[in-house]
Amino acid sequence: MNRKFLYGLAAAVCLLTFPLFAKGAPAPTEEQLSYAEIVPQIKEVKAPYLKGDYLIFTAETTARYVGIAFDFENFHTIHPYQIHNTYDDNHEVESSLLFFILKLNKNQKDIKYRIVVDGLWTLDPTNPRQMYDTNTGLVLSQVDATRTIPPATEVIEKTRTVRFVYTGKTGQQIRVGGSFTNWDSWIYEMQEVQPGLYEFELSLPPGTYQYAYYTGVSSFVDRTNPERCYTKDGKEASLIVIK
């Protein structure tokens, strides 16, 4: 079967598994971009680069297979690159490249890796930055993934505390309500800890919780948390899990 067809099929399946932002929603910031929105923006083969919390790797299509393995996984998993085509006005393939997108967690700031090209381990030819790793005795490709991480709702696992976060205009009264308050939104009010940054911490037992933010009588989802659900009355809400 044609190699480009296989790469294209894999890329199409991957795109279908990532929801796009709803039509009419505000344009996402770079930090809010989804995988499916990043792929069309990949235009050329170049050194790895950051888009929000995503790290994009690219390669030429001259090899039959390109994969990538990371030190934080002890090089046990080889992730295959996928093909990305651009088309002309006649819907003919104009150019092709291979790519892999790594979703970073907030603690990942130094990425070390090797790539596999047609079965051979090698360094990333697009990336001039390399370092010698004393643990493995190998020279590895390296990317500095240091970035500004916007405040976001998170679970502090040690204390099983949820830190709810909202960013918006200063001087607002923002409340939190959810399944943990029987949807009473008048119990907990967030505090403005910096101009336009509101926070509230709450200890909760392990479980899955639905919640929303409130201002006046209006409710809205937590835009710093991508996990969504619908309540029994059909309203969209945010979802958080405490293990």
Your description of this structure?
- The structure is a single chain.
- The protein has 243 residues and is mainly beta.
- The chain has two helices and 20 strands.
- It has helices at 3-16, 35-38, and strands at residues 49-51, 54-59, 66-70, 79-80, 82-87, 93-103, 110-117, 120-122, 130-133, 138-144, 154-156, 161-167, 175-178, 188-189, 191-194, 197-203, 207-215, 218-220, 228-230, 236-242.
- It starts with a helix and ends with a strand.
- Residues 1-28 have low confidence and may be disordered.
List keywords for this structure.
single chain; 243 residues; mainly beta; 20 strands; elongated
SSE order = HHEEEEEEEEEEEEEEEEEEEE
**Which geometry do the CA atoms define?**
elongated
Total beta strand runs: 20
| Proportion of residues in β-strands | 35-45%
Share of helical residues:
under 10%
* Rounded Rg: 22 Å
State the low-pLDDT regions, or none. Answer: 1-28
The chain-level mean pLDDT equals: 87
Q: Structural class, please? A: mainly beta
**SS summary, helix count:** 2
Euclidean distance between termini CA atoms: 44 Å
Main beta sheet: strand number and arrangement? Answer: 6 strands, antiparallel
